[in-house]
Amino acid sequence: NAEYMGDQELQMAFRVFSRVSFAAPAHVRTIKAKVSNVVQKYEQPKEVLKLIRAFANREFDESVDVALKLGVDARRSDQNVRGVCQLPHGTGKRVVLAVFAKGDAATAAQTAGADIVGAEDLIERVKNNDIPFDKCIATPEMMSSLAKVARILGPRGLMPNPKMGTVTNDVTKAVKDAQAGQLQFRMDKQGTVHIAIGKVSFSDEVLLENLKAFMKTMEKMKPPTSRGMFLREMALSSTMGPGFKVHIYTVLPSSRQCLI
Description:
By secondary structure, the protein is an alpha/beta fold. The chain has 9 helices and 9 strands.
């Protein structure tokens, strides 16, 4: 019974399920069929978290990662999906925040608790590939200067963008939102969004509340030109562990089958 399986048994079950091919002898396929029933049971969010913890045996506190497959054409620019989400409990990761601003805005950013505040001097550091921050915010007046380092910040996903709320005159609010768990996400070339919703050490309730907040945001992100089901498939994993499929309807806040 999967409900009473220990961590080692769960790991062995997963390995058997994932490695045995359908070309195997009949008795081996029978074993795989039995194991598949164990693994498939873990399509509910809470059960998947149990599996994730069974595989999270590294010396550090691994993140719980989400991979969400979207029903869009990733080649079309009008179906590109990106945005921000406010996680109620944050991700558990310490984010180094930089603000590109001058004058009163720079003072406000420092008061709000930004880790790094600068203008032309900070841009020069970026030009020299000295990027000591994980996220950055800029005032509109700094954007013309930041254009000089767009080719450096852009590929790293650090270039401030008005649509993401990282280009604003209200730097105080932007800094507080970023520190309170605001998460930026964007779709990759395969039409999948990857984010972390917390740490393995977080309780199930905290992780599921973060997941629910993310899914509520994603339900509103469907491009007008996209046809059919928008949120297709989801898998959860730890940083170094395997991914486990979650039944998509169990994590859709608008679904009657939602379990989060």
